[in-house]
């Protein structure tokens, strides 16, 4: 199973093209994986009758059998999703590859692309840094997908300064989603010392939202590979540190492990899915892992159809919710 390197993916022309490439790569991987069959999918076809929704007609089946068939689904509840994209100063760091912000933006775009192709509603909340948060309410139509891709591309291309402010965005999304159970996906490096974050994540789960945290880190942050005296400069404030990395590497990696363990524990104890992702990891692989995890969490099952397209064949469900029709 071959995936595109994130650097190669970044050279593709538009955010929409990158998102589609990621989605198609992930779904291709899903169909080859031993987990194929765990996605939320139509249970059977039935012949069309007056009153059935036209959007459920399987046109490939019509072309093959010259009769109208519609897909019958296990569950047909429209999904509302909020994708939270961290654009704080620390997210602009890049080592030998793409920046954390670019990686998170591409993943966010792919999720939005997949969900809207499923006719689910997707909202965007780009947060962090000195700028005011950028919010786009959840919608499901094609024009909204175009606007989302443009907004995500704009965020990915604009360097910013300032802190992560995770607590503020979690509090805001709780307010935005208070009337409807939703899927909430947070893409961030999680560089926020606020003690409120575990409580806010638990609050979202108490509100019966399905929550996933994707922690994006650069390979340099995970290994501290630098040699010789190096000047480290914070991307969120004016702190600087001149140090020999060889002298602090052991202590740094110990502290890093403790930080990652705290983040993972906060998610696990709050019944929040947690993914640690280095920016060197192929985005299709990250999305594939996410999709497999989501479908497993939903406890869904599939009865596949050879007549459906790759995007039609996968339904991204949430625990306790159904997923709408493609």
Write the layout of secondary structure elements.
Layout: H1 6-10, H2 15-32, E1 42-47, H3 59-65, E2 69-73, E3 80-86, H4 100-117, E4 121-127, E5 134-139, H5 142-157, H6 166-176, E6 183-188, H7 197-206, E7 210-217, H8 219-223, E8 230-233, E9 240-243, H9 245-269, E10 273-278, H10 283-298
Parallel strand pairs: 3-4, 3-6, 6-7, 7-10
Antiparallel strand pairs: 1-2, 4-5, 8-9
Helix pairs in contact: 2-4, 2-10, 4-5, 6-7, 7-9
Structure report:
This protein has 326 residues and is of the alpha/beta class. The protein has a domain at 80-293: 3-Layer(aba) Sandwich (Rossmann fold), CATH 3.40.50.410. It is 40% helix and 18% strand. The chain contains ten helices and ten strands. The strands form three sheets. It has a six-stranded mixed beta sheet with strand order 5-4-3-6-7-10, with helices on both faces. Strands 1-2 form a two-stranded antiparallel sheet. Strand 4 and strand 5 form a beta hairpin. The longest helix has 25 residues, at 245-269. Residues 35-43, 300-315 and 317-326 have low confidence and may be disordered.
Strand order of the largest sheet: 5-4-3-6-7-10
**Top CATH class of the domain at 80-293:** Alpha Beta
The CATH superfamily of the domain at 80-293 bears the name von Willebrand factor, type A domain
For the secondary structure, the number of strands is 10
Number of helices: 10
Estimated radius of gyration: 21 Å
Determine the mean pLDDT: 82
The percent range for helix content is 40-55%
Here the CATH topology of the domain at 80-293 equals Rossmann fold
């Amino acid at each position: 199973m071959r995936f595109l390197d994130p650097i190669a993916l970044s050279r593709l022309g538009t955010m929409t093209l990158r998102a589609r490439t990621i989605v198609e790569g992930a779904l291709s991987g899903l169909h080859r994986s031993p987990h194929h069959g765990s996605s939320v999918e139509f249970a059977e076809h039935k012949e069309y009758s007056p009153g059935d929704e036209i959007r459920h007609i399987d046109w490939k089946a019509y072309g093959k059998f010259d009769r109208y068939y519609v897909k019958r689904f296990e569950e047909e509840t429209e999904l509302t999703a909020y994708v939270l994209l961290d654009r704080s100063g620390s997210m602009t760091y890049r080592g030998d590859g793409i920046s954390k912000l670019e990686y998170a933006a591409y993943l966010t775009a792919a999720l939005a692309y997949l969900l809207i192709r499923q006719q689910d509603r997707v909202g965007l909340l780009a947060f962090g840094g000195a700028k005011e948060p950028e919010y786009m309410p959840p919608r499901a139509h094609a024009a909204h997908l175009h606007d989302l891709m443009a907004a995500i591309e704009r965020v990915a291309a604009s360097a910013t300064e300032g802190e992560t402010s995770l607590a503020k965005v979690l509090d805001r999304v709780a307010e935005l989603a208070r009337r409807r159970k939703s899927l909430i996906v947070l893409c961030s490096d999680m560089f926020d010392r606020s003690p409120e974050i575990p409580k806010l994540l638990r609050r979202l789960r108490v509100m019966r939202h399905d929550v996933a945290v994707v922690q994006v880190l650069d390979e340099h942050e995970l290994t501290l590979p630098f040699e010789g005296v190096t000047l480290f400069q914070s991307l969120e404030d004016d702190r600087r540190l001149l140090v020999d990395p060889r002298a602090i590497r052991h202590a740094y990696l110990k502290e890093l492990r403790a930080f990652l363990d705290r983040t993972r524990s906060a998610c696990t104890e709050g019944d929040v899915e947690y993914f640690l992702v280095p920016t060197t990891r192929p985005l299709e692989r990250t999305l594939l892992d996410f999709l497999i995890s989501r479908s497993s969490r939903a406890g869904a099952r599939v009865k596949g159809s050879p007549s459906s397209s790759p995007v039609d064949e996968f339904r991204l469900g949430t625990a306790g919710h159904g997923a709408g029709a493609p």
